[in-house]
Amino acid sequence: MILARKLAIALILGVFAVVAVHAYTRVRRLITLFETDIRHDSHVYGRVLAAAVAEMVHADGRERARAVVQLANQRENHVRIRWVSLDVPADSADAPAAPRAELDSVARGEEVVLRLPHLDDVHEEHLVTFVPVVAEGGGSLGAIELAESLAGEKQYVRTALFNTFLANLAVALVCGLIATGLGVWFVGRPMQSLIAQARRVGAGDLSARLALSQRDEIGQLAHEMNLMCDRLAEANARAARETDARISALEQLRHADRLATVGKLGAGIAHELGAPLQVISGRARMLCEDGTSPEEVERNARTIAEQADRIIRIVRQLLDFARRRGAEKSRLDLRAITRRTVSLLKPLADKRTVSIEIETGEAPIEADADAEQIQQALTNLVVNGIQAMKAGGRLCVKVYEEHAAPPGDIGGDEATYACIEVVDEGEGMPPDVVAHIFEPFFTTKDVGEGTGLGLSVSYGIVREHEGFIRVDSEAGQGSRFRVYLPLCRRASPGVS
């Protein structure tokens, strides 16, 4: 309701200002009329009395004329009337109330009106009119002084101002009440509804709709907000469908990459399976020979079982790597998944005369991750390193902790990460190739060596685990890939 209060206060101040200006103008006009009326009455009365005094001075003498002036003064209650001389000392009883310098024009036969702050012992402002008395021969006989107090005018002004203040206050209160009521009804309550709807939208609830019947800007805003909720709901549904489709496509891409890797491993796995199959075949033929002792039969059968278990483990490991499933994150020791991955890829490395070394340390290095996805990402990096060494060589895989800062496109503060490092002695890559290696279907390998998906899939898996990959490579100097994953928080001492 803050907006309604602001509108009410603005209206009250506006009305108060308008009424105050009108009252001030009205009072000033009345004061002007009041003083004009005094001036007119003094002018008329002074002219008549001055003419009468001049005639009596000529006919009956000064004393008779002075008596007439005193009689006129006694009859007037609000005006003091005197016959003053302009050429007597200032302390004389017939001296005018105004300074002599301001009455020079009176001596020349002109009428003068002055405002005096006080008159004799009366400390009130007076309006004093000096009307010249001219003798029949043209000489000056002084002036008739008519002084009227302005106390009534001031009292009138005070009363008018007080009444105006009361009227302004009443008008302002009435307008304020009306403005507050209208503001609450037409502005306050609709705005509260709009605020509540905005909060619901901010919280993710797009089902509520506003029902405002107003046909003004607020009603239009409510209508547009309802349309916005409809569009947001449609956009959310569309985004959910697109996200599901993208996730499905990503899973298909990863599964295709797994199958491509399985194809690469085929030759090495076939060589790995050849040795135990030959042992099984030989032992089976020995069991078929006559004269074999029971001890030999038992030993041959045990050997066949061991080699069969070896084959089963190899095939199961390959099938586990190739199968398709959703992400299942858990607390994972990266050293174990690294050893398992290297064990899976050892036949492929042996076939290409590549030796793989592992440096994992003794302390566990744990991350909250999906074991199969991390294995797939690491497999792609190791296979990439093996294929980069066409003439064979040494590939080193390390697992350790490192304090690092995320790249600019991820952002964040420096922190300690779990790092898996894959270093090969291959041909390396120039900078223009490094800039594109994580793009889907980008590859510099020979036809049949790769699809261009491996590094892209690895990059996506690591980013989904809130990590990042850094590459250091120079042409002819080999390459180093470092995978950074957030560490699991270690339990505090004494907490199980």
UniProtKB/TrEMBL annotation:
Protein name: histidine kinase
Transmembrane feature ranges: 165-187
Keyword terms: ATP-binding, Kinase, Membrane, Nucleotide-binding, Phosphoprotein, Transferase, Transmembrane, Transmembrane helix, Two-component regulatory system
GO MF annotation terms: ATP binding
Major enzyme class: transferase
Main subcellular location of this protein, as a coarse class: membrane
Domain (Histidine kinase) ranges: 268-489
Phylogenetic lineage: Bacteria, Pseudomonadati, Myxococcota, Polyangia, Polyangiales
SUPFAM superfamilies xref list: ATPase domain of HSP90 chaperone/DNA topoisomerase II/histidine kinase, HAMP domain-like, Homodimeric domain of signal transducing histidine kinase
Keyword Chaperone listed: no
Superkingdom, natural source: Bacteria
Subcellular location: Membrane
